[in-house]
Amino acid sequence: MMAMSGDTSDSRTVADRFLVLYYDDDLDRVREAAQLCTGTAKSRLEGEIKFMDGAPPPEAADRLNATFRLLYQRSTPAEAMYVYRVHLRTPDTGQLFARLVLVQEGGRWVVSRFDEKERTL
After folding, report:
1. What pLDDT sits at residue 3?
2. Strand order in the sheet with 108-119
3. The pTM is what?
């Protein structure tokens, strides 16, 4: 079911941190999340940063206020995958799921792939 290793908690810490930063909806925090990425995940966030750059920051009332619940995890010493249910406090959002794949790069865990799927109600 789940393969566990000594590095699993480190990869989970990075995955959790990434989600907190990414869903903060603040450009500086998204930039910080991009620093935890490589590969396609980094390309995706760099594109989103370019899109957000120059836009006014969201008002406090408009922030996403996201919470997360881990649904699935799998890891080896070189790769880890986590699937989360993302709870956004917005009335128009269906069920949102995020999948993160992390790899070891330069002796640290980084997010290499990041996908979201929304299931409408």
Report:
1. 41
2. 67-75, 79-87, 95-105, 108-119
3. 0.83
